[in-house]
Amino acid sequence: MAERYFSASAYYQQTFGRPVQKAVLDIGCTCPNIDGTIGTGGCIFCDGGSGHFTHSGTVTQQLAQERQRIQQHIPEAGIIAYFQAHTNTYGDLHYLESCYLEALQQSDVVGIAIGTRPDCLSKEILSVLENISAKTHLTVELGLQTIHEKTARFFHRGYSFAVFQKAFAALRERKIRICVHLINGLPLEIDADMLETARGIGRLHPDAVKIHLLHILRDTPLEQLWKAGKLQPLSMQEYVQITAAQLSLLPPETVVERLTGDGASDRLMAPLWSRDKLAVRNAIARHLKQTDNWQGKYYQT
Q1: Which of the chain's ends, N or C, has fewer CB atoms near its CB within 10 Å?
Q2: Residues contacting 220, CB < 8 A, separation 6+
Q3: β-strand 20-25 against 78-83: which pairing, if any?
Q4: Cα gap 187→233, rounded to integer Å
Q5: What's the maximum distance between 2 C-alpha atoms anywhere in the chain?
Q6: Cα(47)–Cα(216) distance, integer angstroms
Q7: pLDDT along the chain (301 residues), means of 10
Q8: What pLDDT, in 10s, does the model give residues 135-168?
Q9: Whole-prediction pTM value?
Q10: What is the number of other CB atoms lying within 10 angstroms of the CB of residue 138?
Q11: Is-contact 35 92, C-beta < 8 A?
């Protein structure tokens, strides 16, 4: 590969033979960590997803608006319907299934991505997902963030790593594509913790990963910690170095769908350097080249 990591654009070109973009959707889901089932308030950094969610209406109506946005930049792009806001396998089973199937009725939708929590994958929803996977290119995106229990308790994730492992195995058994989300710069974590998370996830050999930077967003509990001086965000140099090191620990076949996050610009408090995503990606690419590093260089099964 020309790049030193297996990028999403390379994977989409390989899989679909053309560019592919994600259309972010909000179907009104909540989260058990918000509605009181296991907690309230959600994770301390949560704002429900990185999409702007300026659209409303049915899945078809939201896709139409997203299609307009995408075609302004890449007219030939296929679309992945990305059910992103909150927990998209949590709720009425028939409603959820109808939303997934509605997306598939669009001729330019080449796949579906569903963001969820590993503790929201009942046998019933797994059966629905298995059926959807037989119809289209399905990815289930699991927001793990870290393998470390102390960190997860601190940011109120609400489930253990063992729960994640069980959900991962259930999806893998059904041959459903899995993307794991990781966050760098979480409270309590040092470089060694972030590297151990990458190493541990690498051993599971996920189909894809998204690596995010911890964003401090307005009106989240994390903002209060930051204002109180109890949290120092990563510098760009720190983030570039740790992310490049993590890539070297991941299997070369794992698709890297994201190398930095998408904090809403109007709510982002820190770090402000993260607004320039292209600069961050370019810095990671330069660092990999300068250090003669690449995805999978130090991967061990």
Answers
A1: C
A2: 44, 45, 46, 47
A3: parallel
A4: 9
A5: 52
A6: 10
A7: 89 97 95 86 71 73 95 95 94 97 97 97 98 98 97 91 98 99 96 98 98 93 92 96 98 97 80 94 97 97 80
A8: 999 999 999 999 999 999 988 898 999 999 999 9
A9: 0.95
A10: 22
A11: no
Ordered structural domains, the chain, with CATH = 8-290 (3.20.20.70)
245 strand-pairing partners: none
Place of tokens 């070297």: 248
Amino acid at 17: G
The residues near 64 (Cβ < 8 Å, ≥ 6 apart) are none
Write out pLDDT tens, residues 61-109: 999 999 999 999 999 999 999 999 899 999 999 999 999 999 999 999 9
Beta bridge partners of 258: 210
8 A C-beta contact, residue 139 and residue 174: no
| Of 140, 142, 97, 98, nearest in space to 119 by CA | 142
What single-letter amino acid sits at 244? A
State how beta strands 109-116 and 216-217 pair: unpaired
